[in-house]
Automatic annotation (TrEMBL):
<dbReference type="GO" id="GO:0016020">
    <property type="term" value="C:membrane"/>
</dbReference>
<keyword id="KW-0813">Transport</keyword>
<feature type="transmembrane region" description="Helical">
    <location>
        <begin position="18"/>
        <end position="39"/>
    </location>
</feature>
<feature type="transmembrane region" description="Helical">
    <location>
        <begin position="316"/>
        <end position="336"/>
    </location>
</feature>
<protein>
    <submittedName>
        <fullName>Ammonium transporter</fullName>
    </submittedName>
</protein>
<feature type="transmembrane region" description="Helical">
    <location>
        <begin position="93"/>
        <end position="111"/>
    </location>
</feature>
<dbReference type="InterPro" id="IPR024041">
    <property type="entry name" value="NH4_transpt_AmtB-like_dom"/>
</dbReference>
<comment type="similarity">
    <text>Belongs to the ammonia transporter channel (TC 1.A.11.2) family.</text>
</comment>
<keyword id="KW-0812">Transmembrane</keyword>
<dbReference type="Pfam" id="PF00909">
    <property type="entry name" value="Ammonium_transp"/>
</dbReference>
<feature type="transmembrane region" description="Helical">
    <location>
        <begin position="348"/>
        <end position="372"/>
    </location>
</feature>
<feature type="transmembrane region" description="Helical">
    <location>
        <begin position="51"/>
        <end position="73"/>
    </location>
</feature>
<feature type="transmembrane region" description="Helical">
    <location>
        <begin position="286"/>
        <end position="304"/>
    </location>
</feature>
<keyword id="KW-0472">Membrane</keyword>
<feature type="domain" description="Ammonium transporter AmtB-like">
    <location>
        <begin position="19"/>
        <end position="395"/>
    </location>
</feature>
<feature type="transmembrane region" description="Helical">
    <location>
        <begin position="164"/>
        <end position="185"/>
    </location>
</feature>
<dbReference type="InterPro" id="IPR029020">
    <property type="entry name" value="Ammonium/urea_transptr"/>
</dbReference>
Amino acid sequence: MENISSAIQTLTESANTLFILMGAIMVLAMHAGFAFLEVGTVRHRNQVNALVKIMSDFGFSALAYFFIGYWVAYDTTFFSSAETLSANNGYELVKFFFLMTFAAAIPAIISGGVAERAKFTPMLIAAAAIVAFVYPFFEGLIWNGNFGFQDWLDASFGAPFHDFAGSVVVHAVGGWIALAAVMILGVRKGRYRGGKLIAFAPSNIPFLALGAWILTIGWFGFNVMSAQTLDGISGLVAVNTLMAMVGGIVASLIVGKNDPGFLHNGPLAGLVAVCAGSDLMHPIGALVTGGVAGALFVWLFTLTQNRLKIDDVLGVWPLHGVCGVWGGLAAGIFGLEALGGLGGVSFMSQLIGTMTGVVVAFVGGWIVYTAVDKAAGIRMTEEEEYNGADLAIHKIASTSED
């Protein structure tokens, strides 16, 4: 009997390790989606820079999170022997891998907002600082119960803040940090003339669409594998993810009047919004959540570009920042039993938790990017911007005529 119990335990640990490893690989693949979404959206002379940024940011984010960020969030380090680290089939190591791919999404989100005029090395340093300190501070507050924040919400409003897969912890935080960076950088040269918006057309719609599809597919790992163990897997999460994606597609197609840029970002808006409550909502609630997010993205992207004159190249603040906020609130609405959800949520906890994430992200982002700007400058010269980041920074264009 003892041998049977031991074998079952080993099998369970192995299965859990494989499960979360597959999730980590799927989220890792999403970074290719971030890359191609940006490559397809920016002008031709900035395509190489988009690719290099996503890869470089990932590498530096991994180092920052391994040595500092994971310790800040979970009070865990990796300065033990390999024998200790490989206990339970190395589950804790793979869990770090999974959560690190989430952390690395923050600079990938920011990259799309600051494209075409940001210096390379200073922004890389800023990204590492964000992943080492700002993001893990809020991550630990929510997902590890640091500083008693979740206990206080539970005691005060009957439930802690619920964010199953990161609508607020990952997406809203990334989007609001990006807003701070975009505001400090300022608008691209020639973007507004005589107070009017000058259209900078996407360089490659097929690449943009490819990026959106890669992100969409990987999102099912992002959400479903957030259970982190095989016994926590839920078909409800998968179908809610699907329905929110569909809601985003339909709403962005209608509100965006068939615009391909809006259409391919619409499902991403829906997916951002459903992360928080994907384990609680009824599929119809997820559909509504995604539909609202898709419409919200189109409206806000147009508003920021035309009237507010915030030059957010990929619209990462509307997409991740605002739709992430909506997702945190939507979990407190459609997660209620009265609206078909599983319950166990409080709207006040969702509101306070979401607003806390916004403040931490925007203030933290403003401090980091202001400090780096004062120390090294974060914006390219006018000549470098005119020539494009590909030639100015990397000395090569994305294609050759030879």
